[in-house]
Design a protein that fits this description.
Layout: E1 3-6, H1 12-21, E2 27-32, E3 36-37, E4 42-45, E5 49-54, E6 57-61, E7 68-71, E8 74-77, E9 87-91, E10 98-101, E11 105-109, E12 112-114, E13 117-119, E14 126-128, E15 133-137, E16 140-142, E17 145-148, E18 161-163, E19 168-172, E20 175-177, E21 180-183, E22 198-200, E23 205-209, E24 212-214, E25 217-220, E26 224-227, E27 230-234, E28 238-240, E29 243-246, E30 250-253, E31 256-259, E32 264-266, E33 269-272, E34 276-279, E35 287-291, E36 296-298, E37 308-310, E38 313-317, E39 322-324, E40 327-329, E41 337-338, E42 342-345, E43 348-352, E44 357-359, E45 362-365, E46 372-373, E47 377-380, E48 384-388, E49 392-394, E50 404-407, E51 416-425, E52 428-431, E53 435-438, E54 441-450, E55 453-457, E56 461-464, E57 467-470, E58 474-476, E59 479-482, E60 486-489, E61 499-508, E62 511-514, E63 518-521, E64 524-534, E65 537-538, E66 549-551, E67 557-560, E68 565-567, E69 570-571, H2 582-588, E70 589-590, H3 620-637, E71 640-643, E72 648-651
Length: 652
Amino acid sequence: MPTIILPPGSDSVDLQTVIDSATPGVDTIILVSADVVFLGPVFVSTGRIITIAGDGNWTLIGSFGSAFIVNDAIFNLGEENPSFSGRLNISGFTLSAIRVENGSVFNMYDGVISGNAINNGNGGGVSVDSASTFVMYGGEISHNTATGAGSINNVSNGGGVIVSDASTFIMNGGEIHNNMTAFNGSIVSRIAASGGGVFVAPDSFFIMNNGIIFANEASRGGGVFVDRSNFEMNNNATISGNEAGLGGGVVVDRGNFEMNDNATIEDNNAGGGGGIYAGRFNPGPDVAVIMNDQATVRNNNALRGGGMHIQWGNLTMNNNAAIEGNQISHPTFDFPTSGGGIYANIRVTITMNDNASIRNNINAGGPNAIDSEGGGVYLHQWSRVIINDNAGIIGNYAFFGGGIFTTGPWPEIDFEIFINGGIVSGNTAHSGGGIYSEVGTLIMEDGEISGNTASNTGGGVMSTFGIVIMRGGIVSGNEAGHGGGIYNFGRVEFPGFGVVTMEGGTIGGNEASFGGGIYTSDGEVNIFGFAEITNNVAADNGNGQGGGIYTTNFDVLRITGPGVRFSSNRADFATNREPQNDAVYATHILNMEGNWTVPFPQGYNNYDINQNGTRFEFEEEEDCKLIIIILLMFIICRPKKKCCYKRCCNHC
């Protein structure tokens, strides 16, 4: 392999002469032994294979234009197995410092592309175009800028790198940091300067294997902007500490984004989508985000979607993937804040599998904290979440819907929550500790809603004009003022809204002042099949009512046995059924003889279903007397053994 030494005092003209003398198709090393001043761009073309290495740390210094334009060639900045100890820094150019075009390959080994700037153009540090490939092995791309000014047509993208026209950028380690895209010098602009670190244009690819992208800024996509293209993070790759108006870490616009092998997006900030903003800014295909193998989005901050804002697309979380520790908190933003973990808006499907989790996210809101909605997930307009296989929404907080909040236009029920073996647990809110479903549908096949808390209504579930269908699983250990397990709100003049149907499963061990298991206010509750309501408590300083169920309207409560069972529910007092409810009871409570909490012969007893009638008289005192008498008789009359020499005698 020929090696050519570029002597001290050489400039870009001398470098061009050396490159032009290289034989196409033959590896040629050019050794830089001092700083090189560029008087114009250096072209590498026609099949040449050029490696530039440094015998020491030197800078290729520019004041205008590009450093290298690589066209139909292979260019290596540094060596794969370095034989010289040095590092090259490309700095000070006013167009893309590196331009890789027309099917070329550029390999960067531990070099530095820093301090370059482009005005009214794209790719402050590197531009990869026309089915070309740029591969980064260590090194850094930093402090580059792409700035637009004046006309809206002068938007600039890709402060550090732009990849376009079916090209590929592969990052195998290294750093991309402190790059910026801006319009008129500001990232806070209605003009969308995008991709502070990296901009991936349509039909292109960015594969990030290890390495870190941090402290970049843009209007959209502080770290990375993906436009109708593909982005993949692998092997502990990290995007951290970036800032943008939308998508502090990453924006995916009508493209595909996959996170694998402990990839992490953390500590980014944005107005919407602190970690990730995924959707479409213009008509086109839906977006797809996939998180696998302990991929994590954590500790990001935004006004909507602390971890992620997604719309018009799908999020799939597999194998311990996590969205955790993200938050919404703004002391001056006096508008509703939504989705501490995820803000899902307009036709989004979130699917959680294999121990994936959305956990410990906080939506603290602005100065008016009562406007915070959805600590873990906020669902809006034809969106849904599917929780499978021990996946969980755990330990989140918001004022409404600690775990999940859904809302949409009345009267269309257009949101769906499916729990198929998943968990909603340990969440906290004022209303809807686990789930707040407004005009939505909750279907529970298996799994659990447990250990959630609401200071007001709906410890496990708050359903307002919605539908709850429970076929299996358990709602347990939840607490609230009203409706420890489920709070159901409807209006009798709007039949079909505010309906709870329990075909199976268990509502057990929940607690509230009113309605330990279920509180229904003018809504409809139907219980049949093999369902169990057990061990629920209504306690309120002697006034607690409806240990199992509290209803404000007996006409919309229907229970059909014999598979339904009420057991061990408690309230502050017990009652007999009032005579005026006899007719409703006879038509709405069927085949339930013997299936009530002992010792009640019927269900309107306040322990199982609330009732303000005459007090039920327990026979506990007489029972206790009888037990005492029996015990005394046993003590006095129990068989006594007195052993003689050859026999034992029983005496009473």
